[in-house]
Task: structure prediction
Amino acid sequence: MLVMPAPDRGILARRESIVAALRAIVPGDGVIDSEIGRRPFECDGLAMYRQLPMVVVLPSTVEQVAAILKYCHAEGIKVVPRGAGTGLSGGALPLEDGVLLGMSKFNKVLEIDYTNRCARVQPGVTNLGISNAVAHAGFYYAPDPSSQIACTIGGNVAENSGGVHCLKYGLTTNNVLGVEMVTMDGTVVRLGGKHMDAGGYDLLGLVVGSEGLLGVVTEVTVRILRKPQTARGALIGFPTVEDGGNCVAQIIAEGIIPGGIEMMDKPAIHAAEAFAKAGYPLDAQSLLIVELDGPQAECDELIATVGRIAKENNATSIRISENEEERLRFWAGRKSAFPAVGRISPDYVCMDGTVPRKKLAEVLTRIGQLGDKHGLRVANVFHAGDGNLHPLILFDANKDGELAAAEALGADILRLCVEVGGVLTGEHGVGIEKRDLMPSMFDETDLAHQLRVKCAFDPEGLLNPGKVFPQLHRCAEMGRMHVQRGAIPFPDLPRF
Amino acid sequence: MEVFKPTNAAQLKDAIAACVSNERAVDVRGLGTKSGLGRPVASSLVLDTSALKGGIDYQPEELVLSCGAATPMRDILLLLEQRAQMLAFEPPDLAPLYGGEVGGGTIGGALAANLGGPRRVKIGSARDHFLGFSAVSGRAEAFKGGGKVVKNVTGYDLPKLMAGSMGTLAVFDTVTVKVMPAPPKSRTVLAFGLTPDEAVAVLADALNSPWEVSGAAYLPAATAAHSAVDHVKNAGASVTAIRVEGTSVSVTARCEALRNALPDKAGQEELHSMRSKIFWEEVRDVRALLPADAALWRVSLAATKAPDLAAALPDSAYYFDWGGGLVWLAMADAKVAAYAEALRGAMGQGHATLMRASDAARKAVPVFEPLSAPVMALTRGLKTQFDPSGILNPGRMYEGV
Result:
């Protein structure tokens, strides 16, 4: 069961004065304290965990963000930042005694600079909104999480979001050039900018993916790219998961980095086909969608190579897209996989781990066994190019014990990912969902060094506490070094 | 000069523990090929990590390679070449800039300095390919960060923090990097006689085209004359260079499209295979193109500001990489102190590093870009957290860091 930091009764007792102080900073309707007004903020995309925040504040300027944080810092009040609330790991789960800082009013595209290939936007602009703002000139923003219509770039920065095109185009961290952010003490910090290499420590790299624990981002400069000339897809069915996995390995071994390689297992194929009627082969044990994008001449050449590789790996069906309509139809099933699964099960939870690709078949087999053990079904979709799994655990929250079983199965699956040499999360973040599993991947010293980063940015631990790290250490205590003073012999140390 | 030379992770930890308990600052070095980069470190103790090498775990089909941090870069590049793969960030071979031999240096050093070559415009820098590590921090504690798979967002991205930290926070024991397939063909379109402003516009158009340009450089006539590639050396004019990589069919089609888009007045040429390879190695490694005895600046800035920067320092030799986003600039060592301010003023938002200069010059001006007060405070905070006694390469990047 998830344990969050115990609410501070002293803070809760001062709620009215805190609300008043926030109203002095953000006038008008930017401070929400009614229960009905706070209700929409009680959870994010990981909806099985809910908590009403103490108060919601929606600032619209960086000065307001700085003033809010400075006030909360001085008063010892916890703050949880929130973008669009589409995150799947509970990173924006409110705290009972915390201020929920919503960034939705920061929704403007500030500057588009085609010559320097970047756009400067406010954090509340949606991921797709950036691409839409530059689409007329033939550009786009590359990372494309499946929530891109709703999720915001500020949230993408917090989570280091990925998408189906990561293997070729990178995650958020590889596509962000700079941010303006406010640290917990109210200091406004600018990192990076339009230049490609920033100096000093790579604080920008540290902030991307920090899950709202280091600062509140108020502006983002992203790289924009010219749209590929063309894209061609292949839809390939295999008699076994191994064959599909081998096909992916051979495509990459032959030097091809597709824009996307998605794989689905049989339960996912059937759910998607029933929902989207995309023409998926229902007899296949695994299905691959391989998409090549880039110059026409190259795509035409390489898609034929992909077809050959598929045959060599026992493909039972191969379709190559001949036009845009056909390519999009290949994707229709995959893109609706989540709602499709939602139709065959009252509830589902989407997991997110990465494994070495050569372990795919073994991991899928063992996920099936784990599902049997917990009495639950699992459908698998994944970004096969980079080994990023999204097992969808199907359950019914209204049945006694099924939610707990789903949580336990999810934890088992993620521990399995780590056991075979992978990691707990490939793109969704740790949040609260995987927080307590962190020790399965990192030992105490590893985690202590991560917490030291937190101590440099937010030593009081007021920004988004209870997320990512299983235990909260006080930074002051961690500051001590347990090294004996004076000469230590170190007999084994080679000296010259 | 005393030297600690650990041969395994346990000894690395012992060595740093010894430094901590004796309160002795240590100069951390692998093969020492970049010891001229950064502020001079005052230390009578060297932590020689060069024995922490080998143990290569290379999995071409997973696109990952792990090894001891001091594994020589040349060993790694050779291994990758055998499987038609590469380090896509094109690590520059800077050893000769500091008097070292060609092909020196270690993978750990390349990551600690976070240097990327011409492909930066397309695929990123060393930091973008750095997946994980094990290291010992200035607290004499062994820890790891990141992972051994290409896609991972678990916890803070400590490899990013370590990339470019110049050994001031922790000393690597092992590192894991992402590798990529090496493109079978490399071709370069050359345009002659453009001004810096015209060149930046042409390069921006090329980088903004759908032709997946992986190199975009501009050499003024004086710089081009130093190239070993005949079409460049004998141009007698400035050279604007645009690289594409991929299959034969693909590069042929893309070169043609890029040539058709060039301004009418520009003379054109194409470099194929070996010539293209040599040219971009020159751009990547600097040494062939700029005077050997000069002080060197590496300036990362908004590409559109590059011509202004070049114009502001008329008696410096220079060239642009990254479509103008990177300017390499050479000037007489004696002028460094007088010109530093003008240079940093002309670049606007960006980052200028004094890559090579006399000790005196590197003491006189900030080697790395001066940081804003809030960023400096965070930088000092991180240093204190990871190396509270200030023993690892103290002052290498900034005073007191």
In short: Chain B touches chain A through 108 residues (CB under 8 Å).
